[in-house]
Specification:
The chain has 305 residues and is an alpha/beta fold. The chain is 38% helix and 20% strand. The protein has twelve helices and 14 strands. The protein has an eight-stranded mixed sheet, with helices on both faces. A six-stranded mixed sheet has the order 8-7-6-9-11-10. α3 packs parallel to α12. The radius of gyration is 19 Å and the shape is globular. The two termini are 33 Å apart.
Length: 305
């Protein structure tokens, strides 16, 4: 249903581009997922990756981040990259923002696609039924409402992985009553794939976009995903054609993005479903500094404008 939103001829062109075109296509941008793709399994941006991405940037490649992370969890990574401005698709597509290294006050929102009140209430009801800790992702941070010690421990572990502390409130319903609506809702789950499948039965694609992640599931407005927002960002703000972008990802939330760009590369450690839709699979994992290796190989072909 998502792909139907795009011009059919454009999709056919995107799908026709294979790995053999890497040497002849003149690439203009890189779209990079972060966790378990560009970052190590310890969620670190290595020195080699920083050096290579800056080398690509100097060669004329636009570096675009496409992540499920909120802005405050992404800012330290942007700071390490050290580039003046980095366009970023955040919150799995609920927001696109132009980010500045070491100057977060200069960040500016380019696109925003949050949840409405009715859908927010339905998601809260589902999460309560399945006893999950709920977190509201907002442009300036996240607010969670753990209901017991188990949920608090889950949240603490999630915060450690994200390297961001969330505000606590007794009940997220209070936020809705105040007119505070999230860009997306994150629900912590023991078995994300299983819970996401149940959520999709209650909230089908035309009502809500549900995606499973490492230790949680995410609820977004229907049709919103990294691929959708990357497309709007490139057409409305960056003037970049999708078929001149090479993208890297590993998880379910990367599938649309990898399908729509000129060459979508699944990491060696990617989920099988992601490898199936990608144009090709990298020979390296995120812990092999696979993105850096791929970009270095690309730069040696001089296929960059």
């Amino acid at each position: 249903k998502f792909l139907a939103q795009f011009d059919a001829s454009m999709i056919r062109r995107c799908l026709a581009v294979g790995a053999t075109q890497t040497a002849t296509m003149r690439w203009r941008a890189l779209a990079l997922d972060m966790d378990l793709t560009t970052l190590s399994s310890d969620h670190e941006l290595t020195a080699a990756t920083i050096t290579t991405l800056n080398k690509a940037y100097a060669a004329g490649l636009q570096v675009i981040v496409a992540t499920g992370r909120p802005v405050n969890a992404l800012q330290p990574i942007i700071d390490k990259l050290g580039m003046d401005e980095v366009p970023a698709v955040c919150f799995n597509g609920a927001c696109a923002i132009m980010m500045s290294a070491n100057k977060p006050e200069k960040n500016r929102i380019l696109l925003s696609n949050g949840l409405n009140a009715e859908l927010t209430l339905r998601i809260i009801h589902f999460c309560r039924e399945h006893h999950m800790c709920i977190s509201f992702a907002l442009p300036t941070g996240s607010i969670a409402s753990p209901q017991d010690e188990t949920q608090e421990q889950q949240l603490l572990e999630f915060e450690e992985r994200e390297n961001v502390t969330q505000e606590r409130v007794p009940d997220t319903m209070e936020l809705v009553n105040q007119g505070i609506l999230p860009l997306k809702i994150v629900a912590l789950a023991e078995n994300p794939d299983h819970v996401a499948a149940m959520a999709k039965e209650t909230l089908p694609d035309d009502i809500c976009y549900v995606v499973a992640a490492e230790s949680h599931i995410e609820f977004l407005s229907p049709g919103i995903c990294k691929g959708f927002t990357l497309s709007k960002l490139c057409s409305e703000h960056l003037q970049l054609p999708l078929d001149r972008i090479m993208a890297f990802g590993d998880n379910h939330n990367d599938k649309e993005m990898l399908t729509l760009v000129g060459e979508g590369v699944a990491m060696k450690n990617a989920k099988d479903a992601v490898k199936h839709v990608a144009h090709r699979v990298s020979n390296w994992t995120n812990d092999d500094e696979g993105v850096a290796r791929e970009v270095e190989a690309l730069l040696t072909t001089h296929a960059v404008t």
